[in-house]
């Protein structure tokens, strides 16, 4: 295991902000996981695992503990059946490379998630998804090191309790597991319509009626490249805020002024509305503050266009939350995870 001290975290987080990790370990093997955990336990250090750092922020103080950078690679075909293939991936494999390879193999199941940054090991954490697919749909099981029982365990789909952008790893078991591999079942052949509205519209525009995984990937990449800033060139963490959950009365009140506003029923008389829309209506789309900028094509995305510190991001975040609250009486909440 490669262990370093006082390692700058900003190079490992796509927002390119944040202080230093007191200790930083590159995890290449399962033995490295155990060694890193034992080191942390022996020195009473808190731990945090990162993959691609595309959904994580560190503040200017950094992390006073051990950061484990998941780099464990590898893929193994476990089953090759008439209709599907079961593949186990090392948690440090890059999700988009896994998708690209699956498309080359003419497999369907994850192609609509093309271009989502990060590692496959992080994909179960928030049940990543886009354009009608999420990882839970292809998920078979994962292997993880359980820091409570100090043993490797296999967790099934039921164990992970996947929901919309949620699982036990973001919820009740936050910080407990180090995921070392993820196993997926991918179908042979072509994806079947109906596709997600925007994807279908684009396919129709091009007059495509015969669908392949490669065509869906290509279409999704075109849409995403237009809509989302590439974190390699413009630092960002994707959707910065969660969509807002409001009451039925609040929705009815808003719809009086904005009749086209859509609310999605979430149960218990609550409705989900687009936070991107709220930020846009608050006049903040494209707004710059403290070196941060609300993306001009997607108001849910906050980009770093020259911020010097996490403190600057925090001030921009406060201003956005306050302005939306002032105009709509809705307190929006951050989606991106914090290293703590
Ligand atoms: C431009 C952009 C677009 C995006 N679009 C989407 C989208 O369409 N849909 C979507 O769902 N997300 C999207 N995201 C968010 C992000 O890509 C996903 O959340 C992704 O899964 C994060 O992967 P990562 O490896 O970068 O995770 P990190 O940011 O490194 O980690 C995220 C969380 O997972 C935990 N974690 C990471 N690896 C492990 C592991 N091996 N074991 C245990 N815990 C682990 C971390 O501790 C942290 O809590 C986008 C982000 C960006 C920047």
UniProtKB/TrEMBL annotation:
Transmembrane segments: none
Reactions accelerated catalytically: UDP-N-acetyl-alpha-D-muramate + NADP(+) = UDP-N-acetyl-3-O-(1-carboxyvinyl)-alpha-D-glucosamine + NADPH + H(+)
Pathway: Cell wall biogenesis; peptidoglycan biosynthesis
Active-site residues (renumbered): 165, 239 (proton donor), 335
Domain of life: Bacteria
GO biological process: cell division; cell wall organization; peptidoglycan biosynthetic process; regulation of cell shape
EC category name: oxidoreductase
GO molecular function terms attached to this record: FAD binding; UDP-N-acetylmuramate dehydrogenase activity
Cellular location(s): Cytoplasm
Cofactor(s) it depends on: FAD
Alphabetized Pfam families for the sequence: FAD_binding_4, MurB_C
FAD-binding PCMH-type domain: residues covered: 16-189
Keywords: Cell cycle, Cell division, Cell shape, Cell wall biogenesis/degradation, Cytoplasm, FAD, Flavoprotein, NADP, Oxidoreductase, Peptidoglycan synthesis
EC identifiers of the protein: 1.3.1.98
Gene Ontology CC annotation, any one: cytosol
Keyword Cell division in annotation: yes
InterPro entries: FAD-bd_PCMH, FAD-bd_PCMH-like_sf, FAD-bd_PCMH_sub1, FAD-bd_PCMH_sub2, MurB, MurB_C, MurB_C_sf, Oxid_FAD_bind_N
Primary location recorded for the protein, binned into one broad class: cytoplasm
Stored NCBIfam families: murB, PRK00046.1, PRK13903.1
HAMAP family assigned to the protein according to its UniProt record, in alphabetical order: MurB (MF_00037)
Family indicated by similarity: Belongs to the MurB family.
Functional summary from the UniProt entry: Cell wall formation.
The protein, known as: UDP-N-acetylenolpyruvoylglucosamine reductase
Organism: Intestinibaculum porci
